[in-house]
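testing teh design pipeline on a random one, pls ignore if ur not involved
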């Protein structure tokens, strides 16, 4: 077996580690830190939801409703007792807030100050998207919310004779979004998927830390958040969709500083970019995952970095809802299947809520699934659990490809 050439060794670290051992260690560390190796690693209920959010640092919001929306799906994958009410309560209690991570997200209020660099950049006019929004528009919208209370975009819709006025839906929506992105408005609640905005001073807790972090503080936050949520990281992962040459240079410098201090090691694993982790990653003996088969959201924190998933898990995955139908291979909204320590396939699912049935439009399995009999036995309960999560009473499988599944009935 090929041995891993370590760029830096800790005194207690094994010197002879094979490539296969290194990859297995990284997979186990990633799933463990993502909360995907045990049934309920964060506990149960609303507090478990907050613990999960604080640990992951964000949960992506998505508007697609083919199955339960991504933010609820991600949390349910880690908290079996989770219900959307838990997240809604945390938002109303101001323990979490909405803003932008690499995409629209729920974030822990504890980390509010680390959203300030993006907010202030928009306020300085660095976003071309909001160039058409005038100061007058902003003042008018702020005055309306200040006098009328929390409002959504639909509250600014005008009648036909008012079309073209500043409060017409389209310009008002853009103004609301600009004020939201620059932090003058916050989401106070949601009506379905519609945001309800209010003034920052009426939403932000009085004890919230509003000091904008320095570039160094922000860089350290990004590194620490990535290590905490994944167990290891790469420079590309830390800076995922983060702009700015100064930020990238400083993160590179900080990683080197931590290596010199001995708080991080840099691993050169064949086929992977440089991997940074704590020195104890090879000392910590993690038991094999005892988790059952899980259907993950395409926007799950564990799989959102597609290149990383391909390199670590040997799983080439992309969501195909943005792919023209004739070019789709697996389906519109295929969900990665996690079994034990491997991503073993994908299921294109759609919740038929009217008939209370989960349709598995296409189930595709990879050929190399360990413990095949156990997997086949785990499939039906996993699909039934996922159906129940989607308010469906049953499921049906319409197409199967790839590896055969014992006992599966295709409708």
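output:
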């Amino acid at each position: 077996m090929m041995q891993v050439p370590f760029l830096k060794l800790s005194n207690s670290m094994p010197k002879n580690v094979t490539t296969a051992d290194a990859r297995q260690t990284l997979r186990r560390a990633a799933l463990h830190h993502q909360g995907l190796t045990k049934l309920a690693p964060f506990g149960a209920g609303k507090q478990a939801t907050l613990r999960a959010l604080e640990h992951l640092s964000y949960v992506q919001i998505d508007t697609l409703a083919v199955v339960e929306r991504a933010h609820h799906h991600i949390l349910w994958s880690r908290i079996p007792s989770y219900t959307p009410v838990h997240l809604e309560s945390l938002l109303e209690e101001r323990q979490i807030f909405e803003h932008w991570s690499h995409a629209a997200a729920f974030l822990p209020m504890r980390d509010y100050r680390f959203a300030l660099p993006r907010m202030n950049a928009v306020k300085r006019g660095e976003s071309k998207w909001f160039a058409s929004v005038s100061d007058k528009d902003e003042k008018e919208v702020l005055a309306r919310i200040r006098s009328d209370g929390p409002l959504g975009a639909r509250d600014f819709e005008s009648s036909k004779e008012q079309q073209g006025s500043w409060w017409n839906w389209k310009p008002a929506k853009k103004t609301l979004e600009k004020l939201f992105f620059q932090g003058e408005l916050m989401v106070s609640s949601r009506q379905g998927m519609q945001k309800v905005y209010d003034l920052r001073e009426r939403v932000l807790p009085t004890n919230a830390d509003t000091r904008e972090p320095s570039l160094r503080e922000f860089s350290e936050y990004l590194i620490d958040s990535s290590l905490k949520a994944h167990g290891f990281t790469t420079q590309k992962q830390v800076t995922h969709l983060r702009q700015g040459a100064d930020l990238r240079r400083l993160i590179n410098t900080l990683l080197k500083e931590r290596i010199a201090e001995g708080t991080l090691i840099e691993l050169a694993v064949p086929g992977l970019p440089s991997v940074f982790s704590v020195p104890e990653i090879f000392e910590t003996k993690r038991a094999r995952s005892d988790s059952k088969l899980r259907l993950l959201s395409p926007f799950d924190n564990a799989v959102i970095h597609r290149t990383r998933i391909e390199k670590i898990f040997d799983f080439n995955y992309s969501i195909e809802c943005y792919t023209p139908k004739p070019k789709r291979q697996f389906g519109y909204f295929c969900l990665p299947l996690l079994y034990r320590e491997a991503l073993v396939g994908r299921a294109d699912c759609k919740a038929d809520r009217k008939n209370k049935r989960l349709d598995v439009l296409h189930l595709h399995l990879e050929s190399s699934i360990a413990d095949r009999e156990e997997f086949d036995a785990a499939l039906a309960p996993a699909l039934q659990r996922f159906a129940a999560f989607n308010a469906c009473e049953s499921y049906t499988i319409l197409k199967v490809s790839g590896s055969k599944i014992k006992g599966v009935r295709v409708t």
